[in-house]
Every structure is written in structure tokens, then in C-alpha cells.
Amino acid sequence: MNVSNQDEVGKWVSKLIAEDRLEEFYNSKYWRRLRKEVLEEYKHECQDCKAKGYYTEANHVHHIQYVRKHPRLALSKTYIFQGKEYINLVPLCHDCHEARHGYRQKEKKEPLTEERW
Ligand SMILES: [Zn+2]
Ligand SMILES: [Zn+2]
Fold it and tell me: N or C: which end of the chain has fewer CB within 10 A?
């Protein structure tokens, strides 16, 4: 698969979502490679903690444009909106990742794993 072809990525990820097999995306070599690359680019620093002025190791890479809503952007570091480029993938620590997803406001009983995000 050509990971920079958003149509191709979109088709693949949409299919996985439809078949309830999205964990295959998170386990894929494409995502693993990109995730590692993003973590390294940001020196494994949680960006939300950094914004608050302290250092926490990031062990999650969050999609600003949720994979389920925007399958085409699943493997894109950035996205274009109204002619401007924005960051799509951001390294976060566990707590900040939960916060971004509003986990504590939701009624989900089981802990979220990376596979679900
Ligand atoms: Zn954090
Ligand atoms: Zn996330």
C-alpha cells in the first residue's frame, strides 16, 4: 500500500472499520512505523504536558482527526483545512490522551486501550 495515498489509506481503513477490525490498523507496520517516527520527532514528549510547562514521556500518538471519522487521514501527519496545514498526529502521555478523548465524562466501564482510539 502507498501510505501517502489518502484514497488508498481511506479505503483500507474504512473497510477495517466496517468489519470491526480496526485493531489491524493499529497493529499494522504502517501505523507502527509512523507512530515511532512521530514520537521520535517530538523526542517522546507529551505535547499537552509540555504546553503546561512540564515534561512527561509520551507513549500514545493521538489522531486530531479521529480515525473513525476521517479514515483517509489515518496515516497522515498533517491535514489541510481551508488551505492551511494542521498537525494531525500528536504525542501524548496516557492521562493527556484520556483527557483529549473526554474519557472521564463518558460512561465506558472498561479502560480504553490504544486499539480503540
Ligand atoms: Zn501529558
Ligand atoms: Zn487519541
Answer: N
